[in-house]
Design goal:
The structure is a single chain. This protein has helices spanning about 20-25, 45-50, 55-60, 105-110, 125-135, 145-150, 155-165, 175-185, 200-205, 205-215, 245-250, 260-265, 270-275, 280-305, 305-310, 315-340; strands at about 10-15, 30-35, 75-80, 115-120, 195. By secondary structure, the protein is of the alpha/beta class. The chain folds into two domains: about 10-215, Rossmann fold; about 245-310. The protein has a five-stranded parallel sheet with strand order 2-3-1-4-5, sandwiched between helices.
Length: about 350
């Protein structure tokens, strides 16, 4: 059987927009081959790019391309790093000469001129909030969202973040989808790019997958058995959660804290139905122990790390509005590029 050395499609991002769920759904399709793991960047990372395409393809196959021996499958990757807006240099250093948001699209076009590209986009304000929470949960930032945005929305900080894209500084600029996708639309014909929205994945996953399958060129009406399940990179290991550090076990963002367990129960339909079937008095009796434990945990975290309270303070309406205003010109630019309104723009005109 002929060895395959190309990719048929790439999910290019954006980060914190549902790429993990999309990866898990697509990997179940019998006509699609995806690596066992998500996020295997090539075009955006000099360490792999300098080794060459053959080395990358072989590395992907070794890492577990499911069905890779069958060249009749449609091969793809889910790589949100391709919408970060630049290139990561060797050893994490800034590459020389510096690159920009058009570098990765140009590299993909040179190697894979016929590839199909899928961008899944989330309301950029919600994406920024989620990105900040991820960094807080990893212990990479202890500021409140408002404090972080006050710094990152300055002209100097925006210029720096665009010039050197990184997780820590990209909370705002990684949501500038019009700027990030412009290079793709310049390099590729419109019919090779599909733009979809996180809201579609949440509200009508089956219909969205039908469109994506059709775009990739596989059986469109296939419905994976895991459809509707939600997957998050922010699981324990993915968030930098450390089982060796008891101080992380009981933070409100931890999945094993009282608050985390409560969130999990609320998401479960059976547990919600069981709870609502209980008499009010019984609900109160069951709620009291939880409130005592949650209160103790809250005080423990507050005493151990006063900054934690600040870091988890909800965004203020003023900061969210400022972000909304920042993204509006870029959103209109994107809407014009794709020829359709954006779900998060209240006035598409």
């Amino acid at each position: 059987m002929t060895q395959k050395d190309t990719l048929d499609f790439i999910v290019i991002g954006a980060q914190k927009s549902g790429t993990t769920s999309l990866f898990q759904y697509l990997r179940h399709h019998p006509e699609i081959a995806l690596p066992a793991g998500k996020e295997l960047p090539y075009f955006s990372h000099e360490a792999m790019y300098t080794r060459g395409w053959d080395a990358y393809i072989q590395a992907v196959i070794r890492d577990g391309f499911e069905g890779a021996a069958d060249p009749t499958r449609m091969w793809g990757t889910v790589t949100p790093q391709y919408m970060m807006g630049g290139v990561e240099g060797l050893g994490g250093k800034r590459p020389e000469p510096p690159y920009d948001a058009r570098t990765v699209p140009a590299r993909i076009r040179e190697r894979l001129p016929d590839v199909r590209l899928i961008a899944i986009l989330r309301d950029p304000v919600a994406r920024a909030v989620s990105h900040h929470r991820m960094l807080v949960s990893r212990g990479q930032d202890r500021r409140s969202f408002d404090e972080a945005m006050k710094e990152m929305l300055t002209p100097e900080a925006l210029r720096s973040a665009r010039a050197e894209p990184a997780d820590a500084t990209g909370r705002v600029v990684m949501g500038e989808y019009g700027r990030l996708l412009e290079g793709y639309f310049e390099m590729f014909p419109r019919e090779q790019i599909l733009v979809v929205f996180t809201q579609e994945l949440e509200d009508a996953a089956a219909q969205l997958l039908h469109r994506i399958h059709e775009f990739i060129g596989v059986r469109a009406d296939f419905e994976p058995e895991n459809i509707g399940a939600r997957y998050h990179v922010g699981a324990a290991a993915g968030r930098g959660f450390s089982w060796a550090s008891p101080s992380t076990w009981l933070t409100p963002s931890s999945p094993v804290s009282p608050q985390g367990l409560q969130r999990a129960l609320r998401r479960n339909r059976a547990s919600r139905a069981l709870w609502h079937a209980l008499p009010i008095a019984q609900q109160r009796r069951l709620r009291r122990p939880y409130e005592r434990v949650a209160g103790r945990v809250h005080m423990r975290n507050w005493r151990a790390s006063p900054n934690e309270v600040s870091a988890n303070t909800p965004p203020t309406p003023a900061t969210l509005q400022r972000l909304r205003e920042h993204y509006e010109p870029d959103g209109r630019r994107l809407a014009e590029m794709i020829g359709e309104p954006l779900p998060w723009l209240s006035d598409p005109s």
